[in-house]
Amino acid sequence: APPLVVEHIAKSYVSGSKVTPVIGDLSFTLGRGEIISVVGPSGCGKSTLLNVICGLIRPDAGSIRYHGRDLKGQQSSMGYMLQKDLLLPWRSALANVMLGTEIRGVPRRRGEERARALLDQLGLDGFADNYPATLSGGMRQRVALARTLVNDPDVLLLDEPFAALDFQTKLLIEGDTVRLVRDGQRSVLLITHDIEEAVSIADRVLVLSQRPTRIKASYQVSLDCA
Ligand code: ADP
Ligand code: ADP
Predict the structure, then answer these.
(1) Helix 93-104 and helix 137-149, axial crossing angle in degrees, nearest 10
(2) Quick one: average pLDDT of 16-25?
């Protein structure tokens, strides 16, 4: 079964008597090793979609199947990364990356080895003991990327992870991310408002419509034009 199958998802927010329909009827499949970018107007429901997929929000209708299993609103082992790095300021870079392995109960030595290896691969070998406040924005986002990858998730959900970075840093981290993702044959759903980023990184671009949100178009990105 493909890693992720999203079928007929619908979601409205309700507060008091006010109902805001956000996602209409949305379906797609993310294949193994596939990178899909999701673009669409601000407020159309991209973050909502990602939160539904990772189990933070329950959809009103539809199903999310992860390797053929219906998640029924439960959280899965997918990796999740946001624009804000959400690093814990009182923990070193290494200890931030190791959070994931601690939560999973991975033995400390093995968790540390894995975390250090990832920091090395992301060019942060000399910064394992640094606290987030002493790192640049780009370095912090690399730490967040390492934390997302530390448990080897085969599906990554990335919500505008590069949006706050300056252009040069963004290009470097995009490159690192794609390399690590392709090496591990991981599948990625990348939300972005940057159409150039969407096209340069992804195998396929999904364009969402205004609310209620549906898939308006799906483009296969060919290597020739990327
Ligand atoms: P995007 O990520 O595409 O900018 P969001 O998923 O963040 O869109 O939001 C989609 C719509 O849902 C927006 O109109 C937003 O104001 C509304 N919304 C998001 N979260 C909530 C919430 N918890 N309660 C009510 N409305 C919300
Ligand atoms: P940005 O500051 O735009 O986020 P990067 O994260 O790519 O850019 O950092 C650029 C380079 O600057 C890094 O490769 C690193 O060598 C150096 N650097 C950034 N922050 C620090 C720091 N706190 N201590 C030492 N070197 C740093």
Answers:
(1) 20
(2) 94
